[in-house]
C-alpha cells in the first residue's frame, strides 16, 4: 500500500453495509480524489489539443503531477 496522499474517495457515500453485505462481499470506495483530479486534468489537456498516442505516458504523468499539486494546494 502506498503512503501517497490520494485525497480519499472522490464521491464518498454512507452505505448500510449490514444490508448490502454478504460475508464474502468486498466493498470499494471507488476512485480517489487524486484519480478524479487527474481525470479532469486529462480532459482539459485533451480539450486544448490532440496528442499522438506516443505521448500518452508523458501526458498521464503530467495529469497526476497536476492532481498532486491540487491535493497539496487543497491541504494548505
Describe this structure in words.
This protein is mostly helical. It is built from three helices and no strands. Helix 2 packs across helix 3 (56-75). The two termini are 25 Å apart. The mean pLDDT is 82.
Q: Would you summarize the structure shown here?
A:
With 76 residues, this protein is mainly alpha-helical. It has a domain at 31-75. The chain is 53% helix and 0% strand.
Chart the SSEs and their pairings.
Layout: H1 17-20, H2 33-48, H3 56-75
> Helical element count?
3
Radius of gyration: 16 Å
Low-confidence spans: none
Q: How far apart, in Å, are the first and last alpha carbons?
A: 25 Å
Largest sheet: none
Bulk shape: elongated
Topology, number of strands:
0
Secondary structure: helix percent = 40-55%
Please provide the ordered H/E string of secondary-structure elements: HHH
What share of the residues does DSSP label as strand, in percent? under 5%
Mean pLDDT figure: 82
* Category by helix and strand content: mainly alpha
Structure characteristics:
53% helix, elongated, single chain
Amino acid at each position: 500500500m502506498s503512503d501517497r496522499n490520494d485525497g480519499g474517495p472522490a464521491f464518498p457515500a454512507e452505505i448500510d453495509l449490514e444490508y448490502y453485505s454478504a460475508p464474502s462481499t468486498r466493498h470499494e470506495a471507488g476512485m480517489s480524489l487524486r484519480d478524479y483530479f487527474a481525470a479532469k486534468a486529462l480532459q482539459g489537456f485533451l480539450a486544448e489539443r490532440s496528442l499522438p498516442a506516443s505521448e500518452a505516458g508523458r501526458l498521464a504523468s503530467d495529469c497526476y503531477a497536476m492532481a498532486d499539486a491540487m491535493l497539496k494546494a487543497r491541504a494548505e
